[in-house]
Automatic annotation (TrEMBL):
<comment type="function">
    <text>Catalyzes the non-heme iron(II)-dependent oxidative cleavage of 2,3-dihydroxyphenylpropionic acid and 2,3-dihydroxicinnamic acid into 2-hydroxy-6-ketononadienedioate and 2-hydroxy-6-ketononatrienedioate, respectively.</text>
</comment>
<keyword id="KW-0560">Oxidoreductase</keyword>
<keyword id="KW-0408">Iron</keyword>
<dbReference type="Pfam" id="PF02900">
    <property type="entry name" value="LigB"/>
</dbReference>
<dbReference type="GO" id="GO:0019380">
    <property type="term" value="P:3-phenylpropionate catabolic process"/>
</dbReference>
<dbReference type="InterPro" id="IPR023789">
    <property type="entry name" value="DHPP/DHXA_dioxygenase"/>
</dbReference>
<keyword id="KW-0058">Aromatic hydrocarbons catabolism</keyword>
<keyword id="KW-0223">Dioxygenase</keyword>
<comment type="pathway">
    <text>Aromatic compound metabolism; 3-phenylpropanoate degradation.</text>
</comment>
<feature type="active site" description="Proton donor">
    <location>
        <position position="115"/>
    </location>
</feature>
<protein>
    <recommendedName>
        <fullName>2,3-dihydroxyphenylpropionate/2,3-dihydroxicinnamic acid 1,2-dioxygenase</fullName>
        <ecNumber>1.13.11.16</ecNumber>
    </recommendedName>
</protein>
<comment type="similarity">
    <text>Belongs to the LigB/MhpB extradiol dioxygenase family.</text>
</comment>
<dbReference type="GO" id="GO:0008198">
    <property type="term" value="F:ferrous iron binding"/>
</dbReference>
<comment type="subunit">
    <text>Homotetramer.</text>
</comment>
<dbReference type="GO" id="GO:0047070">
    <property type="term" value="F:3-carboxyethylcatechol 2,3-dioxygenase activity"/>
</dbReference>
<feature type="active site" description="Proton acceptor">
    <location>
        <position position="179"/>
    </location>
</feature>
<dbReference type="InterPro" id="IPR004183">
    <property type="entry name" value="Xdiol_dOase_suB"/>
</dbReference>
């Protein structure tokens, strides 16, 4: 199958707490290039791996992995609400194949998705409905988490499921490198926050959502201003992860236990599982090459922010190549 990959950080603080115009424009240029690459590739199906941040998945029933046969954006952080254009038949086919290959995943006919899915979709396309998509949720925040290696297994199984599909398929991974924004955790949350992590967090009122999001924006401002109490981004670790994924050396990442990720990259660094899955799905199609790799630590966005584009090595000669930004 013709295949390509875009993996990108997301941050709901984009547009709400921006860095300097120079850096904002630099990232805009990188995302514009990714969008141009995708326009040229002209995908007939997007398979996106992304996390959730207690907007769609709660502790009433928290699956490690879930494939959406139908999905709706909750519209957090001012993003649009509405249905995604899910390819239901593909979702069921991929789900069945992944299960048959021995990787357990849930299926949802009513998947609620947040900025984790919606931002990359809108980085790369005009609307929520521009392209048929199969959304695959990976739990990256709600402990206990399985080993990172399992995300590689998931990605490999998805890649195998897609191998006989003749369509042009774009694989997308969405999430951060090192970052530790104030996403609540069951282990140390206050009782009223724990309420939110249970099903009662679903469908918050406009005021509840605004209060929560204002807190994150305030925290990002404090973080960028250098206030104490926040974990620093870790460009060295981010480089290790980017190098490992660029060279297909998954073991350098997935052989570590979950504490390593938190120690090196903060709690939300588990979001890199979405990249691991997307790259593993790509690697199932043969050797690949990273064509473009951007990285910059951006405290205003609470993120070691990166966007990469990769294609099968055989496709490289025909592809648009760009190498921009700060590769550390
Ligand atoms: O407030 C949230 O739910 C998450 C915020 C956030 C901030 C920065 C990077 C990310 O990946 C996030 O999800
Ligand atoms: Fe996130």
């Amino acid at each position: 199958m013709p295949v390509a990959l875009v993996a990108t950080s997301h941050s709901p603080l984009i547009g709400l707490n921006d860095p300097t115009t120079e850096i904002r424009d630099e990232v805009r240029g990188v995302l514009d290039d990714a969008r141009a690459f995708v326009r040229d590739f002209d995908p007939e199906l997007v398979v996106m791996f992304a996390p959730d941040h207690y907007n769609g998945f709660f502790y009433d029933m928290m699956p490690p992995f879930c494939i959406g046969a139908s999905a709706h954006s909750v519209g957090d952080y001012g993003l649009p609400t509405g249905d995604l254009s899910v390819d239901k038949a593909a979702a069921y086919d991929i789900g069945a194949s992944v299960l048959a290959q021995g990787v357990d995943l849930a299926i949802s006919e009513d998947m609620q998705v947040d900025h984790g899915f919606v931002q990359p979709l809108l980085f790369l396309f005009d609307t929520l409905q521009s392209v048929p998509i199969v959304p695959i949720f990976i739990n990256c925040v709600a402990s206990p988490l399985g080993p990172a290696r399992r995300s590689m297994d998931l990605g490999s199984a998805v890649g195998a499921a897609l191998a006989d599909d003749d369509r042009r398929i774009l694989l997308v991974g969405s999430g951060g490198l090192s970052h530790d924004p104030p996403v609540p955790r069951m282990e140390d949350a206050a009782p009223e926050v724990i309420e939110r992590l249970l099903l009662r967090g679903r469908n918050p009122s406009t005021e509840q959502r605004a209060t929560r999001e204002e807190k994150t924006v305030k925290a990002a401002r404090a973080y960028a201003a250098g206030e104490a109490g926040y974990r620093e981004l870790n460009p060295e670790w981010d480089k290790l992860v980017l190098d490992a994924l660029s060279s297909g050396d998954f073991a350098r990442i997935v052989d570590h236990d979950n504490d390593w990720f938190v120690r090196e990259g903060g709690h939300s660094s588990h979001e890199i599982r979405t990249w691991i899955a997307a790259y593993a799905a790509l690697s199932g199609q043969g050797p690949y090459q990273v064509q473009s790799r951007y990285y910059r630590p951006i405290k205003e966005w609470f993120a070691g922010f990166s966007t990469t584009i990769a294609t099968p090595a055989s496709a490289l000669a025909h592809a648009r190549v760009s190498n921009k930004g700060v590769v550390r």
